[in-house]
Amino acid sequence: MNRGFVYLALATLGWSGNYIAGRYLAGAMPALFLNGVRWAISALILLAIARLTRRRVGLRRHARELVLLGLVGMFLFSSLTYIGLRTVPASQAGLISGTSPMFILLLGVAALRERPGWTAWIGVLLSMAGVAILMGATASPDGAAHGGPSGTASAASAAGDWFSQGPLVLLLASFTWALYTVLGKRWGGRLTPFEVTAGAAVYGAIPSLAFGLWSLRGQTLHMTPMAWVALVYVSTVASVAAYFVWTSGVERVGAGRAAPWMNLLPVWSVVLGVLLLHEHLTVRALIGGAVILAGALLTGVRSGKRPSAAAASERPGM
Fold first, then answer.
1. Looking at residue 241, what DSSP letter applies?
2. pTM of the model
3. pLDDT tens digit string along 250-293?
4. Record's InterPro entries (predicted)?
5. What pLDDT, in 10s, does the model give residues 80-132?
6. CB-based contact 19:230 (threshold 8 Å)
7. What is the C-alpha to C-alpha distance for residues 104 and 182, in angstroms, rounded to an integer?
8. Rounded to an integer, what distance in angstroms lies between the CA atom of residue 189 and that of residue 242?
9. Where do the domains of the chain lie?
């Protein structure tokens, strides 16, 4: 087997762990504070790597593009993801993330004048149907409170909001990720994948940390040893290491063959959620997730255009 595909699988596994860690940390700290600490650490690491490898980040030269990418990808997307994970089990959150290819296609048509084939539009319809099924699935009581510090009491008490808030917040997160991807495609010719990731991380860390510190007012942190491990994980493996592993995989197999491997992320999220957090998925949730994944495959693989290397390489550490 081509080693590049192994790298792609490992990268999606690393990113899926962000959902597990984010869910675990739901009872340890405010979602916005988690996001601020995560990207502050990640930005420092990426800047250090840039300095050691003598790579340019273009913080001044491409300030406009990187500020917007940082706001959308690192601040909005990640913040919404962690907010959603306070009320939605990680496995179901991962399945909802499978709607990103649908939003990418729709935004690509609107902003980039792309012309997808008819199979891609079937994929959009399937994704929408999967979302409807998944949104109607009943959240598992066991999945609402497993794993986090103090029994994730805050997450458990908010389980009643699953229908009205959690899934909708995660759908909005999926949309902002699609917007980040489309913006990356638009500027892919001017920015390298590393410039996009490092530059957006730096600019995204600024509002993330500011809002994170604001959200901490009057709050108490509940950090256990495993909570510290989870925090280090999202700041290093999910934000930095997985990016380099993914990029290595893309370089070996090509962007067109790499892009469909993104669909492994929801699968890994379900597996890890069940194994590590002891979450339970209803049959209806599994059916909805399967329909979403089928739609994602049709939307992403048969869109009629091969994704650019930049688009396939960028990933702000889901």
1. I
2. 0.84
3. 888 877 677 778 888 888 998 999 999 998 888 888 888 888 88
4. AA-Vitamin_Transporters, EamA_dom, EmrE-like
5. 999 999 989 999 898 888 888 888 888 888 877 778 778 878 887 887 888 88
6. no
7. 7
8. 23
9. 3-313
